[in-house]
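_Backbone structure tokens_
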Amino acid sequence: MSRQLFQLISSLDGLMTALSANLLLGWIDGHEAAPAPTISKNDKTVPNPEYTSWTIVDTQIRACLLAVISPSVHKHARGFTTSAALWDALAARYNSVSTAHVYQLRDKLHTLRKGTKTMTQYLDDVATILSDLDVLKEEIPERDVVNAVIRGLPTEYSSFKQNIRMNNINISLNQLSGWLISEEINLEMENKLNLTESTITEPRTTLLATNGRGRDSGQSYQPGAVQRPL
């Protein structure tokens, strides 16, 4: 449902831009009201040509609106005779849905955790949430986003997190992203180095233990005892 919502909003934004560029936005915002269907001419009531022209444009706009909504929503778009009425109905329907999605996305951002994902995947998840919020016209202060990203880091980033918080560094999300990717590389190098040292140390320990057992085998040395030759 959320993907459909974002696609609809994006499509409607694109449609509004096109209408505005062609000076047709007044048809859906109500400023371009329908002229009278008929006029009086030579003491006779005749069709109003301006109404005919207005109706043609309005019908085309309404067709565009129907084209960008999903088939499942078409049943809620029936019975509207003007593009303005259809636009208002769509706005009323999706405004409440948008509000619910904003709360869900904000909660998702503040509870997001890196877990076992790579840093790039983690930051991509953050970017996706922010992009969805942007579509819904919801702006999150950058400092809140930075704090949410730091909060979602695992324990191996504790020193990094503490350094940021203790120094009260005011950084942008782009700066933080670069630092985190560098920190991930540093941690990976440290882990590989520790693993290499562990691999080297283990055979040495085994060798020393083996040599020790070799010296202990056979006759054991007893302090103060006379060692008789065999």
About this structure: The two ends are 92 Å apart (CA to CA).
